[in-house]
Amino acid sequence: MDCALLPGLLAEQLVTRSHAGIERVVFSNSGAEAVETAIKFARAATKRSRLCYHAHAYHGLTMGALALNGSPEFKRGFGPLLPGATEIPFGDLAALRKELRRGDVAAFIVEPIQGKGVYELDGERWREMQAAVHEAGALFICDEVQTGIGRTGKFFAFEHYELTPDIITVSKALSGGYVPVGAMLTSDKILRSVYSSMERAMVHSTTFKGNQMAMVAGLATLSVFDDEHVVEHSAAMGDLWHHKLEALATRHEFLHEVRGRGQMIGVVFGPPTSRTAKLRWRAIEATRTAMFSQTLVVPLFHRYGILTQVAADNVNVIKLLPPLIAGEVEIDIFVDALDELLSDAERNSGWLVEFGMTMAKGALKRTRTASKSSSVA
What we know:
The protein is of the alpha/beta class. The protein has 13 helices and eleven strands. It is 46% helix and 14% strand.
């Protein structure tokens, strides 16, 4: 319907930073909208309806994106969603091939590094899955809403694994976090399967897509990325995160693993081996599954002013998503704080058990209240 200057300039910048098969950009207002766009375009391009997604996946909470959510608690209460959406166990190539053989899969949508749990696959497995999708005539979609725009030490996380997705979705960091903006990147062929004639010029749109403020914010963000080498900085800080947290893991039994790339880090906790510490772990976990990591998140904020989050429900993983400009000073602040908390937990678990029980009681009370309200209604 139009050919505005600023969306064209930002689209050009995004295409330039993508692989050779990406030629077109459709703007939106959020990551979920970008995923909805990807769903529609994949169906139109393949003339198929079904989509596959990974267990633990998170692609947004609008209707189509919610159907591709790998966490049942998000879907509960909303009735039938996208028909035929099929969950694939994370990294299960055989399960994916089984679904693809049915011949009705339009696309397989993935996060190159999963936000819920910071789960990763090796490059060979990713490439095998992409090849299987393409051999079946389906599209391979990389949801880079969280992992893209420098977060993992590459502009797009799929670059770590030498992938060439047919569709890419982005949002979040594209405007520096200041203005709502999202985008779907794809090939000219896929775009023209939707916008195939003048009569179909408005079959997909959204009111504020490509608005001037969002486009200026996106252009300014990418300019800063280039001028201040933000992507390279993110990669260097990823190495530092691993170095310092893995050193911490050698001193604390509760800290089991550090995973992730760039400024997207998962700190994994698990049961210790020594008898006393193991009893403390069991006491906390008996109140609620994965309560240990919850008991760290709150004091990290109250004691040290550090805002973190548990990576997903029922997993003992704290996810770190610091500003991309965070450096060694900020890393040391977090590592020192975690060191102190874990030392306290090992020396005296009284506060830890009490806090865990308080959290569990509060959650139980809320559940009972919600259940009572539901039965009254």
